[in-house]
Amino acid sequence: MRRVVVTGIGAVGPLGNSLDECWKSAKVGRSGLGRITRFDASALKWKMAGEVKGFEASGYLSRKDIIRLDPFAHYAVAAALMAAADARLTSDPDINFYRNTADENGSNAKRSAYLSSAGVIIGSSRGGICTIEKALEKKFNCSGASSHRISAFLMPSTTVSMASSYVARKLGIKGYCLGLSNACASGSNAIGEGYRMIKTGYSDLMLCGGAEAPLCRICIEGYGSSGTLSKVSDSSASRPFDRSRDGFVLSEGACILVLENLESALKRGVRIYGEVAGYGNTNDAYHQIMPSAEGEMRAMRMAMEEAGVKPADIDFVSAHGTSTQLGDKTETQAIKMCFGKRAYSVPVSSVKSMTGHMLSASGAFEVALTMLCMREAIISPTINLKERDPECDLDYVTKPRRADIEFSVSNSFGFGGVNAVLVLRRPDF
């Protein structure tokens, strides 16, 4: 079996429009949350969101591409192009190159030949739901609705697989291509499946991650009606593990990682962020919405077993930590079940306290930031944790903390009882 490493990362989210911007905010505990501006939310109980700010899709896509694609695909393409440039898979590492050469067909003469045989797996929970909502509003709410024509691009542009398909098109990738939808675990599942493909020799190079643009009325009201969204109207709305937490904050963004066979990465002489060492994928077989600590624990154990490590070897847990009452309590229980007494001495932190919940993009983004935590020997904090829930009694990191981290666990869980866990290793080469 081959070792799998990460050689490139691209990110767009509430904390910034590049990995560097996001990391600078995350490691000092700066929130990216604010009032909803995508539509008039004044009459709603839920007013906060993690919006992508100042993003220019024209930097990565032609005008026709922008019109014909949903924003979740815009974000995916941007993150993928940044990741490919970061991994030196383009002859010009400057992402501004794409602003000058992107054409309507997505062709790019400076792509690496290595990319043509690569694969793409990108997860999304909601796909192009914002574009669907806008089309329905025009069809049924505008005057002359009966004559309003639905775009011929509505269906193809909003399908979950369009993110991976368009990334493949832009980068000339002609190998394995998969759009994956596994609720909030989708981004981590995409990385895990890509890891398995490289580990078993099916592929040498994979671009994997998650993309999401769910900030529309139907999603806010839908998640809100289920009781999972916070009603707090300021940046403290996302407060994982706090006694007064009342739900998550819905967010948008994308994060794509370049996964590569270690041997080829060393041969190319590229920077290595870290190693994907193990992957656990389980289902609770329990409830449509309510999580199960037993199912989450099994995913953690599965990932550690594949990585060949024990609870005593884990130095940090990047929590799913959404800020829901039941979710945070269940994850805490799962960590205790998995780690035993060791659970109380392992640092735990939730990036969602700053980003909100980017659904499928969160898992991939959290893997990326965990690798940066390991590289720089610092744990980004869980902000807004003022009064700990007595049932959430682990070592939650509330201020940036220096730490020597060799192995980390990154958790992602979703509706339907889906659980994806990745074990990450600091480079040792």
Helix and strand sequence: EHEEHHHEHHHEHEHEHEHEHEHHEEEEE
Spatial ordering of strands, largest sheet: 5-4-6-7-1-8-15-14-9-10-12
Give average pLDDT, whole number.
94
For this structure, the quaternary state is: single chain
How does the major sheet shape up? 11 strands, mixed
- How many beta-strand segments? 15
Classify the beta-strand content into a percent band: 15-25%
Which class of secondary structure composition applies to the elements?
A: alpha/beta
Labels describing this entry:
429 residues; alpha/beta; eleven-stranded mixed beta sheet; two-stranded antiparallel sheet; 15 strands; 34% helix
Which helices and strands appear, and what pairs or packs with what?
Elements: E1 4-12, H1 19-26, E2 34-35, E3 48-49, H2 63-68, H3 71-86, H4 96-101, E4 119-123, H5 129-141, H6 154-158, H7 162-171, E5 177-180, H8 186-199, E6 205-212, H9 217-225, E7 253-261, H10 262-268, E8 274-283, H11 293-307, E9 316-318, H12 325-339, E10 347-349, H13 352-355, H14 360-376, E11 378-379, E12 395-396, E13 401-402, E14 407-414, E15 418-425
Parallel strand pairs: 4-5, 4-6, 9-10, 9-14, 10-12
Antiparallel strand pairs: 1-7, 1-8, 2-3, 6-7, 8-15, 11-13, 14-15
Helix pairs in contact: 3-7, 8-14, 11-12
